[in-house]
Design goal:
An 8-stranded mixed beta sheet has the order 1-7-6-5-2-3-4-8, sandwiched between helices. A hairpin with a 2-residue loop joins strand 5 and strand 6. With 248 residues, the chain is of the alpha+beta class. It starts with a helix and ends in a 5-residue tail after the last strand. It is globular, with a radius of gyration of 19 Å. Helices cover 43% and strands 17% of the residues.
Length: 248
């Protein structure tokens, strides 16, 4: 079975099999075998993941035990909150402003981020200028899942209105290198906010707005733990989302 994760990561980075082989010190035919599904040696997995700026567990999920160990899984949980709004605004801002490699934001509206942090978009631009990859996935206002969720929440300020308001806040991000915004059309499973090796996850509840949903603060410790599972959740939805017209 071919390694589609490795293939997609190389394509996103613009890396050919020849470039990768020279970088990690193997024959180009060996890279071809990796793409066909062969598992590299641990040192080559680590070197490849580092070069592609990807999580090794994402590129080769079968290399890690799926059980991962309950103790280590628990160690990935920095803290848990009964309500998203219980996480101090200052802690949100620390995660946003200190990210250096990647910021991934997945939610239906993300309306609260620019509302709570006036410097939010300016900081994303500054982070991107320093080489940080920023991916933002918002709900497609025309999605049937959005319509269903609006019926559940039953509030005057609909999701579609909040999404369009968010896009107005994000207007300065248009055309910024390193920043991409897409519309996603998936049910409201979890909102994911990834900042390098730390992540905030909101498991959504029926008929409950995001601020009142629970929140998990996770840190990445390697392997197929909670962080890696939710990172994969983001990546799968991102792959199926569509770019906004006029956004790069």
């Amino acid at each position: 079975m071919s390694n589609d994760q490795l293939k997609a990561s190389m394509a996103r980075a613009g890396v050919t099999a020849g470039v990768l082989s020279r970088t990690v010190g193997v024959d180009v035919k060996t890279v071809g075998r990796w793409l066909a599904g062969r598992l590299p040696h641990p040192r080559h997995r680590a070197a490849t993941a580092s070069f592609l700026d990807e999580d090794e567990a994402f590129l080769w999920p079968d290399a890690q035990s799926r059980t991962f160990g309950n103790r280590k899984v628990g160690a990935e949980i920095v803290s848990a909150y009964a309500y998203r709004s219980d996480l101090p605004t200052a802690q949100w801002w620390h995660l946003i402003s200190s990210a250096g490699r990647e910021v991934d934001l997945l939610g239906y509206t993300l309306y609260f981020l620019p509302m709570q942090h006036p410097q939010f978009t300016d900081t994303l631009i500054e982070r991107a200028e320093r080489g940080c990859r920023i991916r933002i996935a918002l709900a497609d206002p025309e999605s049937r899942h959005v319509a269903d969720r609006d019926v559940e929440e039953d509030v005057a300020l609909t999701i579609a209105i909040r999404v369009r308001t968010t896009l107005k806040y994000f207007a300065s991000l248009r055309g910024c290198p390193g920043i991409e915004i897409r519309f996603q059309d998936a049910p409201l499973y979890n909102s994911v906010f990834r900042f390098d090796d730390q992540m905030l996850v909101t498991p959504h509840l029926y008929a409950t707005q995001g601020a009142a949903a629970p929140l998990l603060h996770l840190r990445h410790l390697g392997g197929r733990g909670l962080y890696a599972r939710f990172a994969e959740h983001f990546d799968l939805i991102w792959e199926r989302s569509r770019p906004l017209d006029g956004w790069s």
